[in-house]
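Retry 2 of 3 after timeout on previous attempt. Resubmitting structure tokens to design endpoint.
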């Protein structure tokens, strides 16, 4: 299974089982995929890619800087894990 299949599967899972909005926590209605330019920054091993699938609610989906907010969210989650 290559990355494209994995992304597809993850997106389908999020569509079938709506997840909380990754920014505010209420039930999300949009599915987004974030594929970092620099996956190592997000904890991926050398030469590996990493992707994140996330949910957004109606309100957060409308935020102009949602991409940055989501990115920062993933970064801070990673940092709180390590
Ligand atoms: Zn939200």
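Retry 2 succeeded. Sequence:
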């Amino acid at each position: 299974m290559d990355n494209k299949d994995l992304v597809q599967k993850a997106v389908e899972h999020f569509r079938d089982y709506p997840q909380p909005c990754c920014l505010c926590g209420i039930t999300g209605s949009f599915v987004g995929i974030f594929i970092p330019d620099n996956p190592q920054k997000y904890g991926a091993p050398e030469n590996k890619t990493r992707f994140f699938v996330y949910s957004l609610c109606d309100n957060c989906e409308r935020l102009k800087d949602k991409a940055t907010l989501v990115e920062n969210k993933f970064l801070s989650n990673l940092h709180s894990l390590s």
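Attempt log closed. The chain has three helices and two strands.
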